[in-house]
Amino acid sequence: MVKKNWREFARNNVVTIMFIVLCAVCMVLSGYTPSYVVYELFGRLSRNAFIVLALIIPIIAGMGINFAITIGAMAAQIACILVIEWGIQGFTSFLAAAALTVPMAALFGFGIGKILNKMKGQEMIGGMILGYFANGLYQLLCLFIFDNIIPINNPDLTITGSTGIANTIDLAKNGMANSLESLWKLPAYQAVLVFAAVIAIILLIGYARSPRKNAKRLGIQIGTLAAVCVIMQIPAVKELFSMVMVPMATFGLVALLCVFNVVIMRTRLGQQFRAVGQSRVVANAAGINVDKVRIIAITISTVLAGWGQLIFVQNLGAFQTYGAADQVGLYAGAAILVGGASVVRATNTQALLGTVLFHLMFILAPAAGKNLLGNAAIGEYFRVFMCYGVIALALVMHAWSSVAPRKKLKGGDKATDKA
User: Fold this and answer.
1) How far is it, in rounded angstroms, from Cα 383 to Cα 282?
2) Every domain of the chain and the residues it spans
3) Is the pLDDT of residue 419 over 60?
4) CB 3.0 to 4.6 Å from 105: which of 75, 91, 168, 287, for a disulfide?
């Protein structure tokens, strides 16, 4: 029985196990110090975690990976261009861009949902093609409509000697660059104390509001938080995280999105997401408006992806106008699959674990390829190959897991007929 459970666990998490092994091998081959790797990893986590978490709701609603989040990313970049044109400065520009992203991304998400409702069963490929189609319209907007039909007066935004939006948008000039990160930064050992205290307060409030909850479980949770805090104060662990300054506002937003994903699944809407994801036929028979629920799921995901792209570009301090959004859906989709999610099931833990492993590979692969084969480009090719390979493997496993129960059912029917 134990052997069977381990075999099932390995089968369900084969991608995650494979990436853990690959990251361990690349860590040895790269020659990087652990403190440097941790420093680079935290930088990537702060940029990418939010947008990966934005994929969870459509997966639960049975729509697979929302590759159309690239359209939400485009909405965020349009918002950045408009905010710079209007002369808004500093952190206010980030808030203005976030506010402006909501109506645009919501409108785009509604349209995507309406189209995907006509493509039931083909949502992922449909979302990917919609992303390519939207990219053409986005380039038309930036190359022709902006600075021609819609005047752009800020010379930092336009192509010198021509018309249209410049290829690179510098967010440092209006103060948006790192505006979120610079609000509050703490060393890692102090950041852990703050987050542990907040989590402990939330757990205690939840227990006080519902005394029927398990006191033993609460004690284990509080004890675990205390143990993590103690471990982080050990000199060797402090040294490991010595280069890391945690952007508290950014990781606070990531934590809030995790809470949002948990809370919404406990609401009536969240139960409808689950019901539609499990069976559209049964959900429809239960009186759920399946098409409406699917549109809501995609709209929420698209808006969250827009905010995620804002966090990403302000962290980098600049973005490529015509290329920054292209690979957003692909990389985010690969990351959540690496964490053990599938095209029908995903959790916050899987999204965060996948982000860690996927971007750890991005950090280590070039150096490992250079040290092993004398060419850093080998590592670059390898990680791109792994990105596409993970998605292909997840789709194959999903198809296989869908076919296996049907074969069993047919086998049972034949046995019944013979009897």
Assistant:
1) 41
2) 41-340
3) no
4) 75
CA dihedral for 399, 400, 406, 410, sign (positive or negative) = positive
Strands 185-187 and 245-247: antiparallel
Write 117-121 long-range contacts (CB < 8 A, 24+).
117/291, 117/294, 117/295, 120/280
Q: Tokens 């010198």 label which residue? A: 160
Q: Does the model's pTM come out above 0.85?
A: yes
Whole-Å CA distances, 41 to 60, 193, 332, 402: 28, 20, 16, 36
What's phi and psi for 409, nearest 5 deg? -65, -40
388: buried, middle or exposed (CB in 10 Å: 19+, 13-18, 0-12)? exposed
d(CA 78, CA 104) in angstroms, rounded, equals: 9
Q: What digits encode the pLDDT tens for the residues 300-333?
A: 999 999 999 999 999 998 889 888 888 888 888 8
- 46-58 pLDDT, tens digit per residue, is 999 999 999 999 9
Confidence grade of residue 409 (pLDDT, cut at 50, 70, 90): very low
**Nearest Cα to 369, choosing from 29, 18, 27, 19?**
29
Residue 60 CA to residue 71 CA, distance in Å, equals: 20
Nearest Cα to 337, choosing from 70, 116, 56?
A: 56
DSSP 8-class letter at 174: T
